[in-house]
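Changelog note: in this version the structure field was regenerated for every chain. One regenerated record is shown below for reference.
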Amino acid sequence: MNISKSTLDFICKHANDDVRKLALSAKRTENLDLSFALDQIAGRQKARVKLPSWFTTADRAMGDNVDESSLLVFPPHISMEQCSSEQTARYKRRVLDRFLDRDRSRTSHFIDITGGFGVDFSYLAQGFAEATYVERQEHLCEIARHNFPLLGLPHANVICKELESPLELTDLQEAVVFIDPARRDTNGNRTYAIGDCTPNILGFIGELLQRAALVMVKLSPMLDWHQTVEDLNRACESKDAVREVHIVSTQNECKELLIVLSERYESALEVHCVNDEETFVFSPNASVAQSSVVASEPQKLYVPNASIMKAGCFMEIENTFGIRQIGKNSHLFVGDSVSAFPGRVFNILCITTMNKKELKSALAGIDRANISVRNFPLSPEQLRKRLKIKDGGDIYLFATTTDEEEHVIYVTGKYSA
């Protein structure tokens, strides 16, 4: 990549320094590419949390005799912000392996037609005899050519091309194809609808499925998964082209919607709700009877994680865990102790209405608490002001509305198994 010795030394010397201060204080000297160096220092620091394995690889190159050939290169800030985390990339790999293990011998080529910085590619392409990375931006392709051998992918084929459709490629037969459409228009504005992304996969997904063994599509978590499945099946002129939907969250924040499509791997549609190590799987086409569980004096309150909330599989949660919703729009559950619940669990200390005397009794001795509201007429700030309670502490108040339209507050403490 033709990185000067001065630039390499600067990166090594200031690897852990504050980038903003460096930008203001660093001396502009001959042969020092300061802009590039700052990108590397910032990228390395970002990778420490977002891409720990990449950080380890990058860290090995740091030293007095730092060499260009062993230096893992990071892109400008925006590409680092937009790339997948190592956690979500590894999850995609596990999903892919589960499909390939059924018939791995027939699938030897992996193709990523929207390469980007190459994080997803670096994990998904491992183990394939052939691996093709396609990206329209030359600077990202240059970085990919440099990085892939350091990441265990010396055989990766890097293609710099403005690809309207993967159908332009000739070697799709039996391949696994990964697509992460750009979610910004030509003016840099964020987009969400599948048809507004680049490339517009609805125009070629049907024909692509006739050639490829399996297609994985990463989409915005803002999309409605029901509509997404419907749109993709319609584009494929099929009722069941979509095999799996994965709603992927990390630290209870929804990060991406991962769709798996295939004609070879036949199975009923499944939705996987994932948050770190929590996984809940359900079949949306299976009939679900309303839970008859009634707990007269429930012991625990259950708050589903972000992926469950996104999926809207509340009846499935009731039936699987034997708990019930406080109200149909509360999305808070109560019941006795259950194991492996996908979300947070709290011990119910008491339940109170908004009656002043009840409130006074229920909140006696509580001067601070964490307040959440679900389907409740007051905001957390408004409720906090009315209750005259400070923020924080070990008490958690959940204000909601029952099916009988009664406003109630659950006074709880965090549960530890």
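Spot check on this record: Residues 30 and 164 are 42 Å apart (CA to CA). The longest strand covers residues 390-401.
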